Amino acid sequence: MENLSFYSRTPYNLEKAILIDIKDRISYFLHIYRLIPISIFNLFRKQNGQSKRDTLKAFTVILCFLLLRCLYTDKIYHILKVQSLIRLYVLFGVLELAEKLLETLVDDFAIAIDETVGTVKNVEDHVSLNESTVISTERFAEIMSISKEQTTGQKNDRTTDFNRKTTDFNRKTTDLNRKTPDLNHKTTDLNRKTPDFNRRDTSHLNSENRKPTDLNSENLKTQNFNLKNETAPLTKLILILFFITVTLGHTLILYFQYLVVLLSLNSSTSVLYSLIISLQFIELRGNVTKKGDKNTLFTMIDNDGLKRFNLSLYLLIGFLMRSFECSSIGWFEFLEPSLIIFSLKISIDWIKHSFFCRYNKIDPSNYTKYETGYEKRNNFVGHNILFLWLSADLMKFKMVKFLTLFFTVNFIISMIWRRIF
């Protein structure tokens, strides 16, 4: 009975975890579009680390969107249209692998950029430490000046003391003038003894001068520290360029995946079903007897949530495209294959996770710990670029009009989504 509990408890807990994952992905998807207008205003004021990361993501979305607008999407579509089902099947498998690799690269470059921001933070801390030293010196001088200026009564007492000391000084000056002949005599003796001093061995003094002092070592460390600070902006610039390039490649991979799904949907439902079923059973074969622990389980949930989100996005864009091109399309014509595909995907996920928990003796209650026990990576903006790019191709509006309408609609949807969830 204990083994049978894995098959009964896993599907329910799995769907709860994946729904949380998809909800977070949709919230992040809408959040990126909301960041773009905010980041434009943030360019004119000082930004912290989080604001800089948000500005980088917004800038990447806009730049990649403008670059991808130069591609001839119709030509790419017709090139893939003449391919056979076998070629589409192989292409989709290659694209899935390339997507995982590029996601890893995007995440690594984003982490490296955050580390360079942390280096700059250390530099700022170093500067503030020097400034605090200067401030403490000024504070000391201020305290000394305050201690010299007391109340009016104390000033009068000091004036009296000053007059007394002046009288004593005049007396000592008179005594000094009397002793001047003795001082001249001693100066003559000192001049006679000078040659003996010059003949002394001064090699030990030269050897001490040759030793590096603490001051020189501190200057050397300061020079090396300043050299690192000068190279930090250049390193950060190179990492940002790589981040934008890899994000652009990730967006292209997502676009080719969308084209394969769209071609299968436009060809016939049997072609689409054959493609999706074959890919799902290959995934099932590779994960049913897979060994792992709780962290492996969380990674599988994250991957399954991403695949469902990608498939939903592709079908949504495909539905919008067919709606704009053919106004007589019915909801049932679109919903029928979509529901069949999602039902198949959900069934495969249930089988895969049930046997994974069964073979590795993982309690299905661990699915409830996914939201707090797994750190998700939120450095990807390829989905946002893809949806913005294809929406612009569909609407055929001018750039300013399209962007204004798009961000206005997104802001309304974001407010509704935040109120609901």
Automatic annotation (TrEMBL):
<feature type="region of interest" description="Disordered">
    <location>
        <begin position="148"/>
        <end position="217"/>
    </location>
</feature>
<feature type="transmembrane region" description="Helical">
    <location>
        <begin position="399"/>
        <end position="417"/>
    </location>
</feature>
<keyword id="KW-0812">Transmembrane</keyword>
<dbReference type="Pfam" id="PF05346">
    <property type="entry name" value="DUF747"/>
</dbReference>
<protein>
    <submittedName>
        <fullName>Putative transporter</fullName>
    </submittedName>
</protein>
<feature type="transmembrane region" description="Helical">
    <location>
        <begin position="270"/>
        <end position="288"/>
    </location>
</feature>
<feature type="transmembrane region" description="Helical">
    <location>
        <begin position="237"/>
        <end position="258"/>
    </location>
</feature>
<keyword id="KW-0472">Membrane</keyword>
<dbReference type="GO" id="GO:0005789">
    <property type="term" value="C:endoplasmic reticulum membrane"/>
</dbReference>
<feature type="compositionally biased region" description="Basic and acidic residues">
    <location>
        <begin position="155"/>
        <end position="213"/>
    </location>
</feature>
<feature type="transmembrane region" description="Helical">
    <location>
        <begin position="309"/>
        <end position="332"/>
    </location>
</feature>
<keyword id="KW-1133">Transmembrane helix</keyword>
<comment type="similarity">
    <text>Belongs to the TAPT1 family.</text>
</comment>
<dbReference type="InterPro" id="IPR008010">
    <property type="entry name" value="Tatp1"/>
</dbReference>
